[in-house]
Design goal:
two-stranded antiparallel ribbon, single chain, 4% strand, mainly alpha
Length: 150
């Protein structure tokens, strides 16, 4: 399953981003986190801000990449003794990566909050740059649990 996680993550992210660049519209549910609003007294939905498909794509892509990394880190931590028997280099390699993941996650939260307050292209670019960092880390982390190619 680990072998398919990286390609699936990259494929879904690429499709989401390509759809946005090609002008495809993402239908966001009214009243959801990406298309907020309220219902009037007569039950008519009134948007409180414009739908934000760019934030939706960034959030979905980030979550895929983060979950892929977190899954490997959690698996190694939960199976540390068994993994160490197979490859004693895995723990030190992943331990060296853990602070980087924590830093990226912290910067993601800050960039996302800044974008939510002020959804301008510069803030979206910052968000996308942090997203790119975590996406580049996915194959590095996953490669630690894959057997060496022969």
């Amino acid at each position: 399953m680990k072998i398919f996680l990286l390609p699936a993550t990259l494929l879904i992210s690429a499709l989401l981003i390509a759809g946005m660049e090609a002008g495809c519209t993402t239908q966001l549910e009214n009243g959801g986190a990406y298309a907020p609003g309220t219902n009037s007294a007569s039950g008519v939905f009134v948007p409180t801000q414009a739908p934000d498909p760019a934030l939706y794509v960034a959030d979905a892509s980030y979550r895929l990449a983060y979950d892929a990394i977190d899954g490997v880190l959690k698996f190694e931590r939960d199976n540390r003794a068994e993994v160490a028997k197979l490859s004693p280099k895995v723990k030190p390699a992943l331990d060296a990566i853990r602070p980087t993941v924590k830093d990226i996650d912290h910067r993601w939260a800050l960039a996302r909050a800044a974008y939510k307050v002020n959804p301008i292209p510069a803030n979206l670019s910052t968000l996308q740059n942090v997203l790119a960092e975590i996406q580049r880390l996915v194959p590095v982390v996953q490669s630690q649990l894959l057997p060496p190619s022969q």
